[in-house]
Amino acid sequence: MTGKPDSSPLQRYLAHLEDGELAYQFSPAADRPVFFPRVACPYTGNADLEWRVSSGRGVVYATTTVHPASGDPYNVSLIDCREGFRMMSRVEGVPSADVKIGMDVELRIIAQPDGDPPLPVFVPAEGQS
Amino acid sequence: MRGSAAIVGVAESDLGAVADGMSPIDLMAQGVTRALDDAGLKISDVDGIFAATSQVRLSALALSEYLKIPSAYLGSTIVGGSSFMLHVAHAQAAIQQGLCEVAVIAYGSTQRTVGRKSSSAREHNPYETPFKPFLPTTAYALAAARHMFQFGTTREQLAAVAVAARDWALLNPKAWEKKPLTVDQVLSARMVSDPLTVRDCCLVTDGGGAIVMTSYERAKTLKKPVVAVLGCGAAVTHNSISSMPDLVTTGAVQSGCDAYAMALLGPAEIDAVEIYDAFTINTILFLEDLGFCPKGEGGRFVEDGKIAPGGSLPVNTNGGGLSYCHPGMYGIFLLIEAVRQIRGECGARQVKGCEVALAHGNGGVLSSQSTVILGAESTV
Fold first, then answer.
1. Domains and CATH numbers, chain A
2. N or C: which end of chain B has fewer CB within 10 A?
3. Structural domains counted in chain B
4. Pairing between strand B368-376 and B227-236?
């Protein structure tokens, strides 16, 4: 075999982000989502993981405000996405202290400086009471 | 397996802020030679080496070279601060199988001197690092936030853990912290990752230590009272915090169950509890998961001095990672303290009539949990 294989799980994930999509994997055999992206399903060992695109809807599972030694405090949250996978992200659009566990949130994919890949962050969902 | 091996020597290396130029392996060697002295054994008796540190990639090789033990049985499992509990389990198995007869387990760290960034550099995780979690603290803060949400645990209850640890540390001449601490001081300290202030977080010190193990039969011929390994258990639930299945239930449920089953004991029979308090939430989670109180009750369990000196359940009697010492992978100190409590060597902080002690290690971000139950000769 010569040359490199087509793509890694990370490359596929980042390519979706470049297209404005949050992608995750789904294992047909295990009938459940898989995240972070992998080369094989952790439940079955099969390599037949499907790539799917998330609706971008989720709920805050846990949240914290990080207070760096210098610079402004910022939010770090774990988001339970509607499709059944959990990811680290942050909630923007409200002060971090106002981000609450159980809050409905929705995806925003934002551009990053310095050529870093786009970042999947969340904002409070429309109609959030 | 129950009681087939024993811990016969324990020692800390220099602790706190060590001399300039000391290496992690210097500290390991200091711990090993002091622990062998404690056991009445010599380097030439050692035929098993177990070692782990975040600063030296091939630490078992380095220690074998340093002590000139060329053909030792080697183990260098590294699962963060719980590594040394696994080393105890692995050494017990090796001793029982005749793969070695006298094993040393060693740790050394100069993280205070060289700085956290160079002592344990964070790996890049493309699914977490872009969000700048301040690890490990942010991971534990997320667990604490979730515990507060689900069970009504309060910051005051978290702070009570730090205060109890400090009260124990004031009874330990080797402890880094020498002044009393109040709940208000914890609450008003600098916030690191909400709800955890810097006083909810472990110390950043240098330090190391070692343990000597051999068979139960040989242990009875040595100079110190026998401390037998009655039970061991280990579980890994995740590596990064975003993959932890349930932020308020740790692998300690499984590791504790397995250790209790092997020891033929339960939480009610534990006289001294030494659990890895990297952050105040840890103590609450592990007291629950190891069966000392029901799930969700940990905050209320610790709030009235129950785990402090004079309380009904002695927890972290050396002052813990919060107030005694914390060089980064703290687990070995839990084992050292558990052994000393069973031997009755703890002076002002001695738990009266301590026959059984539990040492529980935590590694990563609540990732690796490992429980060791130790007992006096009367319990074997």
1. 7-53 (no CATH), 55-129 (2.40.50.840)
2. N
3. 2
4. antiparallel
Residue at B345 is within a domain:
yes
Question: Between helices B252-263 and B280-289, what is the axis angle to 10°?
Answer: 50
Nearest to B86 by CA among B110, B66, B103, B69: B103
pLDDT at B117: 79
Q: Which residue of B has its CA nearest to A122?
A: B131
pLDDT of A2 above 70: no
Whether B189 maps to a domain, the answer reads yes
pLDDT band at A128 (very low <50, low <70, confident <90, very high): low
Within 8 A of B138 by CB-CB distance, chain A residues are 64, 66, 76
Over residues A28-56, mean pLDDT: 96
Predicted confidence at residue B119, as pLDDT, reads 82
Q: Is the pLDDT of residue A1 over 70?
A: no
Q: Do A78 and B143 touch (CB under 8 A)?
A: no
Give the domain extent around B360: 136-202+231-374
- pLDDT tops 90 at residue A37: yes
What is d(CA B229, CA B55) in angstroms, rounded to the nearest whole number?
Answer: 29
Alpha helical stretches, state H, B40-134 = 59-67, 83-96, 111-114, 116-119
> In chain A, positions 49-108, which contact chain B (CB-CB < 8 Å)?
61-68, 74, 76-78, 86-90, 96-97, 101-102
pLDDT, one tens digit per residue, over B5-32 is 999 999 999 999 999 999 999 999 999 9
The verdict on B223 and B241 lying in the same domain is no
Cβ–Cβ < 8 Å for B52, B211: no
Report, as ranges of residue numbers, the positions in chain B whose pLDDT lies below 70. none
CATH number of the domain residue B75 falls in:
3.40.47.10
CA-CA-CA-CA torsion for B42, B373, B93, B379, nearest 10 degrees?
A: 80
Residues B37 and B66 in one domain: yes
Query: Does the pTM of the predicted model rise above 0.95?
Result: yes
Beta strand B73-75 with B48-51: parallel, antiparallel or unpaired?
A: parallel
pLDDT tens digits, B164-182: 999 999 999 999 999 999 9
Asked if B132's CB is within 8 angstroms of A76's CB, the reply is yes
- Domain co-membership, B177 together with B29: no
Strands of B48-51's sheet in order across: B73-75, B48-51, B103-109, B207-215, B5-12, B227-236, B368-376, B356-363, B272-275
**Model pLDDT, residue B157:** 98
Instruction: Select the residue of B127, B149, B194 nearest A88 (Cβ to Cβ).
Output: B127
Looking at the domain assignment, is residue B380 inside a domain?
no
Return the CA Rg of chain A: 16
- Here the tokens at position B20 are 């300039």
Nearest residue of B to residue A73 by CA position? B193
